[in-house]
Amino acid sequence: MRVQNCVDSGGKYCPCHLAYSNDCIRCNMLNSNNYCDCVWQGVCILSDINHNKHEKINQRKEYICDIVSIKEIYDETFLLKIKIPKNITKDLIKPGAYIMLKSKEKNSDIFNTPISVMDINDDILEVVIKVLGVKTKNITTTNKVIVKAPYFNGIFGLKEINTTKNENCVVMLSGLSQVNSVKVIKKLVESNNRVDVFVNYKGIVIKEVIDKIRNFGVNIYYFDFEKDLSTLKGHIKENNVTFVYSASSMIVSKILMDAIDSTNKNIKLSIANNNLICCGEGICGSCSIDINGEVYKTCKSQIDSRVFLKAKF
Ligand code: FES
């Protein structure tokens, strides 16, 4: 097994169940390889396990929360504002953070639904939910929900987002994935980047998302992704863009990646992680993807965006 870049490694939810069951994706001493080949990065999961042998695994907690407001913003698509405990707000404000959500009446883990965090205002969490089945229908017809959080791997390329400074950036919004662009754009603006946002107006455009990003002072351009991709390519070339974030479906991200690479393969690329997630803990395997013969759990593993898209399509 190849050592993977686990999003939880060294954090408060590490070591997790995978380390205790010898399935750790980050430490070869704690999986079937059983040898140490890590380059010391300030974290030794094996030593943490040895120190904490008799302590319980620190697991994410569930919180019963009130829905403050619910508004249908598109057909069967709802914006929910949920009052959450203050102690989880600082984790959920990070780019890529997501939650597991279920109705209080359906208090079974089979109803857990992974949902991207759109934004946090004080202790109010904002999420957008499209009703697709029993799980999501139940969430939009109640006034109390159970929030399990925080989860972190909603984006591939978090390092690129967190380290890009004083550069020219493009963010592309297409489809429901635009919801998780708010925190990314905020972070890029805070890091003194120039940010130009391209919105595919042929798909869903969420006014609430656009209003938020407009407040960050970024340039917003509306375009038709299928017809005007060359406009975006030209913009990237002419403006010396060095970082692109695709808040889009995976197939759109793949087409965008090919367009970027035909211009400059060195442009950093981060993408929304829309791969199927069920447990979010590396346990169930529903998010697994085969990359060059190695199994990666996309709910926990930070994978290079290009490597992921080439493996997927
Ligand atoms: S969602 Fe269960 S292993 Fe990733």
Give descriptors for this structure:
6-stranded mixed β-sheet; Rossmann fold; alpha/beta; 15 strands; 10 helices; Elongation Factor Tu (Ef-tu), domain 3; 3 domains; 28% strand; binds FE2/S2 (inorganic) cluster; 313 residues; 7-stranded antiparallel β-sheet
What's a quick, concise take on this entry?
With 313 residues, this protein is an alpha/beta fold.
Per CATH, the architecture of the largest domain is 3-Layer(aba) Sandwich
The CATH superfamily of the largest domain is identified as: Nucleotide-binding domain of ferredoxin-NADP reductase (FNR) module
End-to-end separation in angstroms reads 23 Å
Number of strands: 15
SSE series = HHEEHEEEEHEEHEHEHEHEHEEEH
Structure write-up:
The chain has ten helices and 15 strands. The protein has a seven-stranded antiparallel β-sheet. Strands 8-13-12-9-10-11 form a six-stranded mixed β-sheet, with helices on both faces. A two-stranded antiparallel ribbon has the order 14-15. The chain is an alpha/beta fold and 313 residues long. It has three domains: 1-58, no CATH class; 61-151, Translation factors (Elongation Factor Tu (Ef-tu), domain 3); 155-312, Rossmann fold (3-Layer(aba) Sandwich), CATH 3.40.50. Strand 1 and strand 2 (77-83) form a beta hairpin. It has helices at 17-20, 45-51, 89-92, 134-139, 158-163, 181-190, 207-215, 229-238, 250-261, 305-312; strands at residues 61-74, 77-83, 98-103, 113-116, 119-121, 124-130, 144-151, 155-156, 168-173, 194-200, 219-223, 243-247, 268-272, 288-291, 294-297. The structure holds FE2/S2 (inorganic) cluster. FE2/S2 (inorganic) cluster binds at residues 277-280, 282-287, 297, 299.
